[in-house]
Amino acid sequence: MIKVRVAGITRGSVVDGLGVRTVVFFQGCPRHCPGCHNPGTIPFEGGREMPVIELVQEILDTVTPLTKGITFSGGEPLAQPEALLETIKMIKEKKPSLDIWTYTGYTFEEVKHLPVLEMIDVLVDGPFIKEKKDLALAFRGSSNQRLIDVPKTLAAGRVVELQLETE
Ligand code: SF4
């Protein structure tokens, strides 16, 4: 049984991707970015460890007819790639209409080999860089980070960024 370590779950967010979303914070991050937005999620021994099936049930309990999707953040969700893959698979089985956003401190090029990428709709990639902080950016903290349309990127074989109507 695959286990996952999480810091917490927030429901009803409108700032972690398009629409109303449940946000799942994975616990543990190998990077130590100066100005990290969520330093409590960095230690790998923190948070709660639980079977993936229990996390999925907790996530599904937050879903309402208004929920557009699930966002994985952290911490570093891709530091637990098998657990993330299993979690998304089980969510998609129960609620295929939910879209999946994932924040990562890695660049797309560093993680494109991971099978879990095929389950993700939007990857917000790259570390937060304090010198590139820009409060005007939608859904990301610094200008080096990209909102990557993963299905289009995998089909094209090159990074395709998500087009937001506001941009
Ligand atoms: S990658 Fe994200 S969670 Fe990890 S240290 Fe950097 S800002 Fe914090």
3D architecture notes:
There is one protein chain. With 167 residues, the protein is an alpha/beta fold. It has a single domain, classed as Aldolase class I (TIM Barrel, Alpha-Beta Barrel). The chain is 22% helix and 25% strand. The chain has a 7-stranded mixed beta sheet with strand order 3-1-2-4-5-6-7. Strand 4 (67-73), helix 2 (81-94) and strand 5 form a beta-alpha-beta unit. Helix 1 crosses helix 2. The longest helix is centred in the middle third of the chain and has 14 residues, at 81-94. It is globular and about 40 Å long. The mean pLDDT is 95.
Question: How do the helices and strands line up, and which of them pair or pack?
Answer:
Layout (H helix, E strand, L loop, with lengths): L2 E11 L6 E7 L21 E4 H11 L4 E7 L7 H14 L4 E5 L4 H4 L10 E4 L20 E4 H7 L11
Parallel strand pairs: 2-4, 4-5, 5-6
Antiparallel strand pairs: 1-2, 1-3, 6-7
Helix pairs in contact: 1-2
Q: How would you classify the helix and strand content by structural class?
A: alpha/beta
How much beta, percentage-wise? 25-35%
Number of helices: 4
Please name the CATH topology. Answer: TIM Barrel
Strand order of the largest sheet: 3-1-2-4-5-6-7
At CATH level 2, the architecture is Alpha-Beta Barrel
- Strand/helix succession: EEEHEHEHEEH
Main pleated sheet: 7 strands, mixed
Distance between the termini: 43 Å
Just give the CATH class: Alpha Beta
Q: Would you count the extended β strands for me?
A: 7
Report the average pLDDT across residues. Answer: 95
Classified in CATH, the superfamily is: Aldolase class I
- Poorly predicted runs are none
The residue fraction in helices comes out at 10-25%
